[in-house]
Amino acid sequence: MVCPILDKALPREIHSEGRGRLRALETLTPTLIHEVSQPLTAAAYYLEACAVQLRRRGTGTDEMLSMIERAQEQTVKAIEIIKGMRNFLISGEVVGRPEALRGIIDSALAAVPEVSTVNVVHAYSSASTHVVVDRLQVEQVLTNLFVNAVQAMEGSALRRLTISTRETARETQIVVEDSGPGLADDTLGRLFEPFFTTKPQGMGLGLSICRTIVEAHGGRLWPNRPVKGRGATFNLTLPTSQD
Ligand SMILES: Nc1ncnc2c1ncn2[C@@H]1O[C@H](COP(=O)(O)OP(=O)(O)OP(=O)(O)O)[C@@H](O)[C@H]1O
Ligand SMILES: [Mg+2]
Questions:
Q1: Residue pair 176/145 in contact by the 8 Å Cβ criterion
Q2: Do 137 and 105 contact (CB within 8 A), yes or no?
Q3: Which residues are near ligand 1 (CB < 6 Å)?
Q4: Nearest to residue 118, comparing CAs of 143, 165, 151?
Q5: Which residue among 33, 98, 135, 144 is the one 20 to 30 A from 5 at the CA level?
Q6: 206 CA distance to ligand 1 centroid (A)?
Q7: What are the tens digits of pLDDT across the range 30-59?
Q8: Is the pLDDT of residue 123 over 90?
């Protein structure tokens, strides 16, 4: 079975080693989707049971309960992402609904606990912007961009993540800017190539998956040209909801 996300993420000029690994991933992806759902569903169930017991006995502190609830939320989200991938794998289509952009950004931030170590600046053109999207897929895109930003700022004295939005009647632009070392000139042409990574533990799949998801929504994803002394900036557009 060919995975549309990976298939679309594959640029024509990709080298043969990447193609071989991509083929392996195409085989692995459906298996992963199938096999990982069950343990995640079980984990969500046990986490919920744990929170219920603690609440009933009155032994759990509020902080502990809130951590368990957050872990449960993230587990449920992973199950939903897998379900969404399964549907996308079958149909290759995105089903978009009007969704509040603010809520999507907040959920994506909640999926990256490390953002608590950086200063997050919100600069939205409107608090009520709605976009027509598959909510979980767009959360995945933003989560990937936030993780990249936090990882890039690991060694920086100033750690600031700025998220801004601007909208027209047709499309909404989201800008994610960090205060890390910025994008290297010589990597710019390869950022969206599957398996391109400069990180020892990186898979190099985040940005290519992000671009595939954004383009499946009819939008675009691109980085700003690097400016010396400035961090990295990524822009993406999504269809604005007319409702
Ligand atoms: N905010 C950023 N600042 C600096 N470099 C970045 C930033 N975001 C991405 N990059 C560069 O782009 C490369 C590709 O990013 P991508 O998210 O596709 O893969 P990755 O982060 O290396 O691995 P993973 O598959 O875990 O996401 C990174 O290895 C890094 O060199
Ligand atoms: Mg990444």
A1: yes
A2: no
A3: 144, 148-149, 152, 178, 180, 183, 187, 191, 196-199, 202-208, 232
A4: 151
A5: 98
A6: 7
A7: 777 777 888 888 888 889 988 888 888 887
A8: yes
